[in-house]
Amino acid sequence: MALYQGLQQKLQQKLSPQQIQLMKLLQVPTALLEERIKEEIEENPALDTGQETDDVEEDEDAEALAEIDNNASEELSADDYDEPDVYESYLDEDEVGEYKLRDDNVPELAGNDTIPHPVSSTLNDNLTDQLALLNLDDHAYTIAEQIIGSIDDDGYLRRDTNSIVDDLAFKQNIIAEDTEVEEIIRKIQTFEPAGIAARDVQECLIIQLRRKMLGHFSPAIKNALRIIEFHFDEFTKRHYDKITKSLDIDEAMIKDAMVEIRRLNPKPGAQLGIVNKAEQYIIPDFFVFNNAGDLELSLNQKNAPDLKVSDEYKDMLRDYEKGSKKDKKQKEAVLFIKQKIDSAKWFIDAIKQRHETLFNTMQAIISHQRNFFLSGDETALRPMILKDIAEKTNLDISTISRVANSKFVQTEFGSFRLKHFFSESLSTDSGEEVSTREVKTILNEMIILEDKKNPFSDDNLTDMLQAKGYNIARRTVAKYREQLNVPVARLRKEL
């Protein structure tokens, strides 16, 4: 194949680094925006907090920057290196900038003040503390530590005995027998919370019921233990008639046993994790208020302090322009200053553009879902996709997606994710398009109000929705039911 040269025109679209950073800023929720701004302030000393200066000073700074750009391309002679550098003290590598040592937004602590830190213990720590009360020898204690380390966050011991023996042999060079490990597992199963270190749900419930029987014996607990121990499969499938016949008990006795079973905790380890886990608070990005029928929108700017270009850097530019001697080192230093000022100005503009984009997008969502924000009724939600908001705001669909990601809005009816307002459409008999959110709400209400002794099947729910005028198939009803975390009719049946 012969080689040849040729010219070819090609049109390509590339994102600049600034555009990429702006897209990332749009994804940052309000809760993390303050941390992102602090990171930028630490990296760029030309960025500072506070109110921006007036327009006259900004124009002077812009002229100074333009003149520096024009002069930067001029090459200096080697003699310029011998002239004194008036900025040498400022750019001294051993000097630490003041901006790195303090934060104007956080008050200084007195010398005798202490900084509070959250104290919490994990499930592993809790079990290890109880292990110390058994007075085991070093060999057994090491085996117990290996077992506790194999317990997951829900409190279950997912590894079998042989695997634990292998872990001890290969990782810790400890030879242990299966019976020895099983004996220590039974000791750990006596720890709090009840049901810890069980291998499956059935064993977890049995451990809890047996401990209940030791503290307080009752026929209901005894029947509950018999159901879980000998008829667990029928219990999970709600085949109560088979359980009644096999155990020779009546319906009232099985009801009392079911009450005892419902009081058990199938995830004993998760309970401790919830108590010790740092609480997660929702910080809304938007606030919507109903002012006599007029919806007012405001941004949460609590974590977004006012930003400006550092006055010290501006003064350094002005001093450079007034100076008569400009050697190469001075110009290199001022070019560095200019780069930092440009970066600071861009970041300030990016934050402003972020606020503007968020405000316009949320305003379009409020306009589209006005009835919901006035009433709070889920059935008032209209079908809405990303494309609808993109057309209203003249923004790209990907931009709308970034804005809706991890953002919350606070209304008088509660706080909602922005994604909550986006849903597909479903047609009715009259040809009207309704939101799938509305159908799910009605479906959930039907299931809540059903007779639990004879719950509705998916076919029944489909017929009821179609009777209300919704054109919906059975498989769609099953999909919506699963999205609502509602089990099938057989598992919803109660005595």
Tally the helices. Answer: 22
- Look at the structure and give the mean pLDDT: 79
Unreliable spans are 72-118, 274-279
Total number of domains: 4
Task: Tell me the structural class.
Answer: alpha+beta
Morphology? extended
Major beta-sheet overview: 4 strands, mixed
Question: Number of DSSP strands?
Answer: 8
Radius of gyration: 34 Å
Report the order of strands and helices.
HHEHHHHHHHHHHHEEEHHHHHEEEEHHHH
How is this structure best described in words?
- There is one protein chain.
- With 495 residues, this protein is α+β, with helices and mostly antiparallel strands.
- It has four domains: 17-73 and 282-299 and 306-422, no CATH class; 123-188, no CATH class; 201-274; 425-492, Orthogonal Bundle (Arc Repressor Mutant, subunit A), CATH 1.10.10.
- It has 22 helices and eight strands.
- It has helices at 17-27, 30-43, 55-72, 123-131, 138-149, 161-171, 178-188, 201-215, 219-230, 232-236, 240-247, 251-262, 268-276, 311-322, 328-368, 370-375, 386-393, 397-404, 436-449, 458-467, 474-483, 489-492; strands spanning 47-49, 286-291, 294-299, 307-309, 408-411, 414-417, 425-427, 433-435.
- Strand 2 and strand 3 (294-299) form a beta hairpin.
- Helix 1 (17-27) packs across helix 18 (397-404), helix 3 (55-72) crosses helix 15 and helix 5 packs across helix 7 (178-188).
- The longest helix has 41 residues, at 328-368.
- Residues 72-118 and 274-279 have low confidence and may be disordered.
